[in-house]
Amino acid sequence: MGEYVAPLKDMRFVLNNIVDLNALSKLEGFEHAESDVVDAVLEEAGKFATNVLSPINKSGDLQGSQVKDAVVTTPDGWVDAYAQFVEGGWNGISAPEEFDGGGLPSAVALATVEMWNSANLAFSLCPLLTQGAIESLLAHGTEQQQQTYLKKLVSGEWAATMNLTESQAGSDVGALRSKAEPAEDGSWRISGQKIFITYGDHELSENIIHLVLARTPGAPAGTRGISLFIVPKFLVNDDGSLGARNDLKCVSLEEKIGIHASPTAVMSYGDEGNCVGYLIGGENKGMACMFTMMNSARLNVGVQGLAIAERAYQQAVEYARERKQGQGPGMPNGEMAPIINHADVRRMLMTMKANIEAMRCLIYLNGECLDKAHHHPDETVRAESMGMAELLTPMSKAGRLILGSNWHLLAYKYTVAWALSKRPVLANIIAMLVFCQFTREPTAFRRWILLAENWVLTAVRP
Amino acid sequence: MVQELAQTGNEFTAMSLHLGLAVSALKEATDWLYTNAPNDPNAAPAGATPYLRMFSTIVGGYLLAKSALKAKNLLAAGDSDKGFLSAKIITANFFVAQIMPQATALLGPVTEGADTLFAITEEQLSA
Fold first, then answer.
1. ipTM of the predicted structure?
2. Chain B residue with minimum CA distance to A448
3. Distance CA A111, CA A8 (A)
């Protein structure tokens, strides 16, 4: 099976005809988003995905990340790939230029994120988590916190993690027990154990900035008493250099189907009572801070579904054209036809293709709405765009519901091709479905009822 | 959009028809939820998943139809990438004729409410 090839034509078509890239490039902060610049960016991104990320996907999954004495080692090729990722400026392409980011709209960034996920889902999870921290800092960090952490997170020189879940606190985040005690100098001492921390430890970057939800003394019970803390793996000196190793560690790694290469850690904070954390966003405002980045996190999960479906589709088409089984109508006896000539296989391929193209339109459009919501000079347009983004987000995330039928072709393909050791890619597909499974959003539903009328009226407007 | 498709001609007549039916059904489903949700606390949660699927699929159909119109205009303006652009139109036709009608049909499930979901007892579910 070939390496991933980015569907640049379709991405460009969507960006130029469904998204209005031209109009976006006229908004403040997006001056680089002109068509020809974006074309070049996408071209380079495609090369990186095909030549660097895709070739280590299967090997990475088979090898997996390992932990020994609280130190994590990622699979062969990971360190080098990440270094090239940082060097290429890919980590921060949509971050503000003020912090050395590329200043491109999220509509464009989504196309590159789609490519990373298609080529190598496990690898993509690292920049995905760093992105969450960047957004939290941009929205809620003090100027000093932004100066200390943002540039290196934007470049990717430092990576980040999001620490919410504990063994007794999953969907019910409010049940978390991690604690934060105030220290004399205004910082805090964090203690507790967090689970399912993606890229909790690794050797890809010289520092890892953990964002940790914890409860301060006297805080109210439930989600209203949660605060967010910046907890660096290495403390940062005033001059920006790395200081002491903080009191936190990776206890163990999970085996996550489809993404063995991604180190999913159990993290222990403050075993020695000396884990330094810095409050971000105000006491008891932790959930609000987390939710700032929830919209883009949800959109990113939708992109994952799209990306995996696209990868699976490419392989399915390649396979269907080569694999010969059964005699086609009108063929001489004994000759077999490629299965792509079978009507039902055509149906499966068309279903995948149509669903993928529909989701690509929807997801990039969703990104454009967020871009306009944050950058358009007109306040009414900003509000409307935000409303539309909120309407589209659950749909982007629910890609599984539309893409669910892709499973049929994959099951068919892999039943026959099992012997060819496709396990990692099959597992990737399962991972996609599992990811998407977790992303239902009944609570957004209420807002829809108010926005749906507007949308439907817009849709029928001639 | 529906009218624009109808006016564009042969390839788009069926697309216009399917999209019109879909949007109509979506509006009806939305109206139903708008009316019933405030009075019945189970109405929205019961219909949420089929409604989400309905909405996403119909938005998808709308966006593909829009893509097809753009592709047609680009072809008419002399764009030489006939293979890619004609595929856009063919794919859009497939989606609105084969995939989207399933979403249109979800009007029924969305507006049925929660009765069947809760008519069965926990004991019956466990048996």
1. 0.92
2. B30
3. 9
Say if the Cβ atoms of A14 and B67 lie within 8 Å: yes
Beta bridge partners of A412: none
| pTM of the shown model | 0.87
AA identity, residue A164: L
Q: How far is Cα A183 from Cα A193, in angstroms, rounded to an integer?
A: 20
Q: Which residues contact A218 (CB under 8 A, 6 or more apart)?
A: none
Phi and psi (nearest 5°) for A190?
Answer: -100, 140
SS3 at position A328: coil
Residue with tokens 């900035």: A209
Nearest CA in chain A to B81: A9
Read off the pLDDT of residues A153-170 as tens digits, 9 standing for 90 and up.
999 999 999 999 999 988
Place of tokens 């966006």: B63
pLDDT band, residue A293 (cuts 50/70/90): confident
| Chain B residues in contact with chain A using a Cβ-Cβ cutoff of 8 Å | 1-4, 23, 26-27, 30, 33-34, 37, 44-45, 48-49, 51-53, 55-57, 59-64, 66-67, 70-71, 81, 84, 88, 91-92, 94-95, 98-99
Tokens, residue A348: 């499966």
Q: Is B26 left (phi over 0), alpha (psi -120 to 50) or beta?
A: alpha
Q: Which of A157-161, A208-212, A323-327, A401-405 has the lowest mean pLDDT?
A: A401-405
Residue A423 pLDDT exceeds 60 = no
Task: Tell me the pLDDT tens digit for each residue of A31-73.
Answer: 888 888 999 999 999 999 999 999 999 899 889 999 999 999 9
Q: What is the mean pLDDT of chain A?
A: 85
- How distant is the Cα of B40 from the closest Cα of chain A, in angstroms? 13
Tell whether A412 is within 8 A of chain B (Cβ): no
Cβ-Cβ contacts under 8 Å, B63 against chain A: 18, 358, 361-362, 365
Instruction: Provide the total of helices (H) and of strands (E) in chain B, helices listed first.
Output: 8, 0
Decide if B26 and A355 are in contact by the 8 Å CB cutoff: no
Amino acid at A455: W
- List the structure tokens of B93: 């036709």
Cα angle vertex A208, ends A204, A211, to 5°? 145
- Name which of A405, A441, A445 to mutate to probe chain B: the one with the most chain B Cβ atoms within 10 A of its Cβ: A445
What pLDDT score was predicted for residue A403?
Answer: 55
CB contact under 8 A, B52 and A354: no
The answer to whether the beta carbons of residues A223 and A174 sit under 8 Å apart is yes
| B8 has a pLDDT exceeding 80 | no
Q: Looking at chain A, which residue has its C-alpha nearest residue B60?
A: A358
Q: How far apart are CA B103 and CA B88, in angstroms?
A: 21
Mutating which of B5, B52, B85, B99 best tests the A interface, going by the most A Cβ atoms within 10 A? B52
